[in-house]
UniProtKB/TrEMBL annotation:
<protein>
    <submittedName>
        <fullName>NAD(P)/FAD-dependent oxidoreductase</fullName>
    </submittedName>
</protein>
<dbReference type="InterPro" id="IPR036188">
    <property type="entry name" value="FAD/NAD-bd_sf"/>
</dbReference>
<keyword id="KW-0274">FAD</keyword>
<keyword id="KW-0285">Flavoprotein</keyword>
<dbReference type="InterPro" id="IPR016156">
    <property type="entry name" value="FAD/NAD-linked_Rdtase_dimer_sf"/>
</dbReference>
<dbReference type="InterPro" id="IPR023753">
    <property type="entry name" value="FAD/NAD-binding_dom"/>
</dbReference>
<dbReference type="InterPro" id="IPR050260">
    <property type="entry name" value="FAD-bd_OxRdtase"/>
</dbReference>
<dbReference type="Pfam" id="PF18267">
    <property type="entry name" value="Rubredoxin_C"/>
</dbReference>
<feature type="domain" description="NADH-rubredoxin oxidoreductase C-terminal">
    <location>
        <begin position="314"/>
        <end position="377"/>
    </location>
</feature>
<feature type="domain" description="FAD/NAD(P)-binding">
    <location>
        <begin position="2"/>
        <end position="295"/>
    </location>
</feature>
<dbReference type="Pfam" id="PF07992">
    <property type="entry name" value="Pyr_redox_2"/>
</dbReference>
<dbReference type="GO" id="GO:0016491">
    <property type="term" value="F:oxidoreductase activity"/>
</dbReference>
<dbReference type="InterPro" id="IPR041575">
    <property type="entry name" value="Rubredoxin_C"/>
</dbReference>
Length: 413
């Protein structure tokens, strides 16, 4: 069997491991346009902070490819997928035949058109190791940095460079920071915390006009800057999937075995849609744990397995300036909220299930809440009043405790 994986990402790693769980000898080729072995993108802000280095950013050791019998074709782009001929055409003309193909093509930063942006010399995105290195080269202690986007990427960038520049301004059209993962109260708490670290926010606003070193906002405020970072969002890389005839609806459509609408072509990671069990809807869940899990299932099934990717949900574990956040699930339902200085907890329940959570500050034992959401545990089968206040296994029935402690299936003796 000849397997080709386009993308050298977390999903690709999962795919290799899934294939090798079923097929120890088949040929695996990984194509990647970055000239690096697989690394953890969320760590690029910590690289700029000096809290990690390129070696420790690697998601798997250097010998991962060799140990798993993987041929690498990195530093090159796949230009075309011919699903009829079952070939991948590379940017240098090389043709790679496949029996099974994985699309782990990820996403790219979305840079919206903004008037005068072509005048800005020092402009960057913040999604790859190369983009972080390029940004690092121009930073000076007196630099004024303007970040467009108060989401996860923009704020991780702010954290990564805050100690290396003079000041950071963040502009976002949304009325609060981190709107994709936090409610209003959680967002206000994080904003107050981040503002203590050399960062100012201009929300419910956007850039109307750039000059070489100023941004005039629609509100009329003028912000001077030396360096611009655009972090307004990402778009999935679906062009190869469309070429191959795969169904695409914003992301690459897959079923719960991770196969696309075209036989023998699978997809996983930030380019592919998943079924969100907390909203019962198909959507892109661009999250590292989901990417690996989806890749693992895809790889196993490419090699003849029968795995299901059926427990996907939104989940984020992230921190800014040493204040940590864990969120999961959806926020539609009845809320239980507690807060104290530096601590915020919101649990959302609906139809006898825990549907979602927001934890800020105190994130101990968050895995218990995550498990309740993922496993759809009926709340009347546990002591949820106790778990709301103090998540602990003693609130579960004996068989549940055994399942969570020993990995046994529910109902085991």
């Amino acid at each position: 069997m000849n397997y080709v994986i386009i993308g050298n990402s977390i999903a690709a790693v999962g795919c290799v491991e899934g294939i090798r769980s079923q097929d120890k000898t088949g040929s695996i080729t990984i194509v990647g346009d970055e000239p690096y072995s697989v690394y953890s993108r969320p760590l690029i802000s910590y690289l700029l902070l000096g809290r990690t280095d390129e070696k420790r950013m690697k998601y798997r050791p250097d010998d991962f490819y060799e140990k798993n019998g993987v041929k690498t074709y990195i530093g090159h782009r796949a230009e075309k997928v011919d699903s009829a001929a079952k070939t991948v055409v590379m940017d240098d003309g090389t043709v790679l035949p496949y029996d099974k193909l994985m699309l782990a093509t990820g996403s790219n930063p979305f840079v919206p058109p903004m008037a005068g942006m072509d005048l800005v010399k020092n402009q960057f995105t913040f999604m790859t190791l190369d983009s972080a290195k390029a940004l690092e080269k121009v930073l000076k202690p007196e630099s004024r940095v303007l970040i467009i986007g108060a989401g996860l990427i923009g704020l991780k960038c702010a954290e990564g460079i805050s100690e290396r520049v003079g000041h950071i301004d963040v502009v976002d059209m949304a009325d609060r920071i981190l709107p994709s993962i936090l409610d209003e109260e959680g967002s206000a708490m994080m904003q107050e915390h981040i503002e203590k670290h050399n960062v100012s926010f201009y929300l419910s606003d956007s850039v109307a006009q750039f000059t070489a070193d100023t941004a005039t906002l629609k509100s009329g405020r003028v912000l001077g800057f030396d360096v611009l970072v655009v972090a307004v969002g990402v778009r999935p890389n679906v062009e190869l999937a469309e070429q191959a005839g795969c169904e695409v609806n914003r992301g690459i459509c897959t079923d719960d075995t991770c196969v696309t609408s075209v036989p023998d072509i699978y997809a996983a990671g930030d380019c592919a849609k998943s079924h969100d069990i907390t909203t019962d809807a198909d959507r892109i869940l661009a999250l590292l744990p989901n990417a690996h899990m989806q890749g693992l299932v895809a790889g196993a099934n490419m090699a003849g397995g029968s795995e299901l990717y059926d427990k996907a949900m939104p989940m984020n574990a992230i921190g800014f300036f040493n204040l940590h956040i864990i969120t999961a699930g959806s926020y539609d339902g009845e809320a239980y909220v507690t807060h104290a200085p530096g601590v915020y907890k919101k649990l959302i329940t609906k139809e006898n299930l825990l549907k979602g959570m927001i934890l800020i500050g105190d994130i101990k034992r968050a895995g218990i809440y995550t498990s309740l959401i993922r496993e759809k545990t009926p709340l009347d089968t546990i002591d949820f009043d106790l778990i709301k206040q103090h998540p602990q296994l003693m609130a579960f029935a004996k068989t549940e405790r055994k399942a969570k402690l020993a990995g046994a299936k529910k109902g085991d003796a």
